[in-house]
Amino acid sequence: MSQLVDLNLSEKVAVITLQNGKVNAISHALLDELNAALDKVEEAGVVLVIKGQAGMFSAGYDLATMKESPEAAKKLVQRGSSLTLRLLAFPTPVIAACTGHAVAKGAFILLASDYRLGVDGDFKIGLNEVAIGMTMHHAGIELAKGRLAPVYFNRSVLCAEMYSPEHAVDAGFLDRIVPAEAMDVAIEQIVNFMSQLNMKAHHQTKLKARKPLLESLANAIELDA
């Protein structure tokens, strides 16, 4: 059985790489492995980096499951929303290394991370749910409302506008972009800075700063259920 998530754990950083096929589909199996990896990162108490494969961070939920039945789709989305909630309240800094396209749930993982580093290139980032006939779930709306630049909320959620990495910075999906060849060095620099933080102070401040969003997201997950 192939691994869908690779965990590389060292003294000051844990790198989780999503590796589920060409589009890094978010499936039940991937969520199982990802949550197990997050358990180990929490225990280690180190900075977390989540990255994708070259050219693809993630294109979102596994389509086979989403098309199986409304109940199957609902269950997968609920689990994905719980992951979002976990990342938003994660006890150590969460860095998303967006290695390419980030669509739907892939973009939501960016919105749930503390620092989002993207690779420059001909990539698309955004929430395409409305464009493909899906009504946005309450949890997705709350997360987008809490993390996107307000002027981009309607364009992203209601109009399913997709952005280049450069414009994704303006919208609030990314914090910074670098050329592909500079990605590894940039990640190392951010990790070095983040690892010097007092992790207890970081976590407590995160929970205070995000309290309204965490509460509204938890309520939205219940509403979606």
From TrEMBL:
Alphabetized InterPro entries for the sequence: ClpP/crotonase-like_dom_sf, Enoyl-CoA_hydra/iso
Family matches, as Gene3D superfamilies: 2-enoyl-CoA Hydratase, Chain A, domain 1
CDD domains: crotonase-like
UniProt family annotation: Belongs to the enoyl-CoA hydratase/isomerase family.
UniProt xrefs under PANTHER family: ENOYL-COA HYDRATASE, MITOCHONDRIAL (PTHR11941:SF54), ENOYL-COA HYDRATASE-RELATED (PTHR11941)
Record's protein name: Crotonase/enoyl-CoA hydratase family protein
